[in-house]
Write a structure and sequence with these properties.
Length: 167
């Protein structure tokens, strides 16, 4: 991935984190009795220079990188209580015709594992999207390993196909 895309990918979570920190600070000050006018006229906002603002924007990149790495570290893993991430590779491969799947299998040397859904969706109140949890028969060491491997293989096949298509 080129460096410009990486900087954007890492900076957005960092900037959102910094924005939320400032927003919570402003909300806290408003709760403590400050008015919006008194906040704007305060010494804190008067002392912000262009250099400090640029520094705050630049700090968003390493903070975002750390947030992204935390997300990436847990992405392919099975979380507590057997919650799993969606098998995006299988979701994409399921839409392909069988002849294209055979061609992908021949080109990559890997067989897509899309026949069986190993998780069930669990709805929780107040959450917009369902969470995915391994089915009971896969909540053992072999089932967990199989799901992780299934997710990796399907993603690699799909990712490899996308790279070949761009070339």
């Amino acid at each position: 991935m080129d460096p410009a895309r990486q900087v954007i990918r890492w900076s957005i979570p960092g900037w959102i984190f910094l924005f939320m920190a400032v927003l919570f600070q402003v909300i806290t000050a408003l709760i403590w009795g400050y008015t919006p006018g008194s906040l704007i006229a305060s010494e804190m906002f008067k002392s912000i220079s262009t250099a400090i603002a640029a520094l705050i924007v630049a700090i968003g990149v390493p903070i975002g990188f750390i947030i992204y790495q935390c997300y990436y570290a847990i992405y392919g893993n099975i979380l507590p209580f057997h919650f799993v991430n969606r098998d995006r590779g299988a979701d994409l491969l399921n839409y392909l015709p069988s002849d294209v799947l055979k061609d992908l299998e021949h080109n990559t040397g890997c067989e897509p594992d899309i026949d069986e859904v190993m998780y069930k969706e669990v709805n929780f109140p107040l959450l917009g999207n369902p969470l995915r949890r391994l089915k009971r028969e896969y909540r053992n060491r072999n089932g967990r390993r199989r799901y992780i491997r299934k997710q990796q293989v399907n993603w690699e096949i799909q990712h490899g196909a996308a790279h070949r298509h761009r070339a």
